[in-house]
Specification:
Layout: E1 13-17, H1 23-32, E2 36-41, H2 46-56, E3 61-64, E4 76-79, H3 88-96, E5 100-102, H4 103-110, E6 121-125, H5 130-143, E7 150-152, H6 158-163, E8 171-174, H7 177-181, E9 190-193, H8 201-204, H9 207-215, E10 224-228, H10 232-240, E11 248-252, E12 261-265, E13 268-271, E14 283-287, H11 296-311, H12 316-325, E15 334-339, E16 342-346, H13 353-360, E17 366-370, H14 380-386, E18 390-395, H15 400-410, E19 416-418, H16 426-437, E20 443-446, H17 459-474
Parallel strand pairs: 1-2, 1-4, 2-3, 4-5, 6-8, 6-9, 7-8, 9-10, 10-11, 11-12, 16-20, 17-18, 17-20, 18-19
Antiparallel strand pairs: 12-13, 13-14, 15-16
Length: 475
């Protein structure tokens, strides 16, 4: 089913794999286009049955509790991004010559439906920082007077953005490695890979496969492939990409930028990529103080967002105004309160070691609250690089022993409180223990380096528990 058939869905047999945030919109859209739609889903619980009833009322067939068998007559599978490539359904599809798309691929193929003039995509991926960067980018684009939205993996359906009544000049698109894996024909105006660190390796099978899927964001870029100068793997992905003639590699760095880079000089964000005579000239874009919070990894996010916006022709003033207008989401290196001259910072979103390391690098003297579900991660590198900043550590959660062992090896002099608890009340105890370790001028930092589901419903609930505990300290 090639792109030339994209307007002819009448009577096409399409199987949608998975209910949920991507599967349900995909099934509704395809049914509305006249396709014969079957949804298959592994789960068969009360929520799934309610979703199935909603779809069946629209004429969609739903098969609960059996996501493994390929429905007879299937011509195309549209999958939820999280379904692993080695699932039996996809093995059967490959044997039958049936293509598999994700919801991003479907949105890309449908963007010209009914003669629409599609908005270009400025696309962002990376192990950490994607959501913040995309939100910064949307803020900058809006400051330039452009009609835009932050969409994709950020929780806003690309199908809704592409097919909705609102018209956009450009879209700021967050893409996960899963989504990129299932989006073979995506061709962005410009794309960025912020960083690469081991993550989701159980899904991808290897670091090489994970990196290759991230690198798909550069395929067919028209104007700029934005990479992280400090992370050579991102530049390697640019070199490997097949881009349109004239597309440029544009780096971002926390140091002084070279030609074709954006960077920082004396507290100023500077562009040496999208200026005339970039060998000699530079353009001031904003001040470091315009970025909230001005932590190093967040400055990097701002530079990546600025590079994509500048690739789209946005003027310097809009970069400054957009960064000033931007407020980060909760639980992302958020200052909660100062108590007895100690700052308490919530970075519950730091759910892996790479994110936690970036968070720890933002402060000089830290009492670190860490632990949770490790998801197969190891902590030696994180602890070794951060040891000199640690005043003390408080450990919670199911896999805290792994962090404790790394601390014993690489920071034996740092005092550690191992709470030995996984109940939700452990957070109050952790904050109280951290208070006892902290001295005036220190930062008590929740940057768990782990997932939250051993103790909390999600990282938001974990961050809320931390903030609540801090408020009790100050009461």
């Amino acid at each position: 089913m090639g792109s030339q058939e994209v307007t002819d869905w009448q009577g096409k047999h399409v199987t949608v794999a998975g209910l949920g945030v991507s599967g349900i919109p995909a099934a509704k859209v395809l049914r509305g286009l006249g396709a014969i739609v079957t949804v298959v889903n592994d789960g068969d619980d009360e929520r799934a049955r309610a979703q199935a009833a909603e779809l069946e009322a629209l004429g969609v067939t739903v098969r609960l509790g059996d996501g493994a068998t390929l429905p007879e007559g299937t011509e195309l599978i549209v999958t939820a991004p999280g379904w692993q490539p080695d699932k039996p359904l996809f093995t059967a599809a490959a044997a039958a010559g049936v293509p598999v798309w994700g919801d991003v691929e479907l949105a890309w193929r449908l963007r010209e439906l009914d003669g629409r003039k599609p908005a270009p995509w400025l696309a962002v991926t990376g192990t950490n920082g994607k959501t913040t960067t995309v939100q910064m980018l949307a803020s900058i684009l809006k400051a330039a007077g452009l009609r835009t939205a932050a969409v994709g993996n950020i929780g806003v359906s690309l199908l809704d953005a592409v097919l909705g009544e609102e018209e956009y000049d450009v879209l700021a698109v967050e893409l996960s490695s899963y989504q990129l894996h299932w989006a073979p024909s995506l061709r962005a105006h410009s794309g960025a890979v912020l960083n690469l660190a081991p993550d989701h390796l159980d899904w991808h099978g290897s670091m090489e496969a994970y990196a290759a899927d991230k690198g798909r964001i550069y395929e067919g870029n028209r104007v700029a492939c934005v990479y992280n100068v400090a992370d050579k793997a991102t530049e390697d992905l640019v070199r490997a990409a097949d881009v349109e003639e004239g597309c440029r590699a544009v780096g971002f760095t926390l140091g002084a930028p070279g030609p074709s880079q954006l960077g920082v000089v004396d507290g100023i964000l500077v562009d040496r990529a999208f200026v005339e005579n970039r060998q000699k000239n530079a353009q001031e874009l904003a001040e470091v103080s315009d970025v909230t919070p001005p932590a190093p990894h967040n400055i990097a996010n701002a530079l990546a967002a600025a590079a994509l916006a500048r690739a789209f022709g946005v003027p310097p003033r809009a970069v400054r105004d957009g960064l000033r207008d931007f407020t980060p989401d909760a639980h992302r290196i958020a200052h909660v309160a100062d108590v007895d001259e100690v700052a308490y910072v919530d970075d519950s979103k730091a759910t892996n070691t790479h994110a936690a390391e970036a968070s720890l690098a933002a402060y000089e003297s830290i009492v670190w609250i860490a632990g949770g579900l490790a998801k197969g991660a190891t902590f030696d590198e994180l602890v070794a690089r951060s040891a000199k900043r640690l005043r003390g550590v408080v450990l919670i959660g199911a896999d805290r022993a792994l962090i404790h062992e790394a601390l014993t090896r690489h920071a034996p002099e740092v005092p550690v409180v191992d709470l030995g608890r996984t109940d939700t009340g452990a957070m109050l105890a952790a904050v109280q223990e951290a208070r006892g370790l902290a001295e005036p001028g220190d930062t008590v930092l929740l940057a768990p380096a782990c997932a939250s589901m051993d103790m909390f419903a999600n990282y938001n609930k974990r961050g809320d528990a931390f903030a609540e505990a801090v408020r009790e300290l100050g009461a």
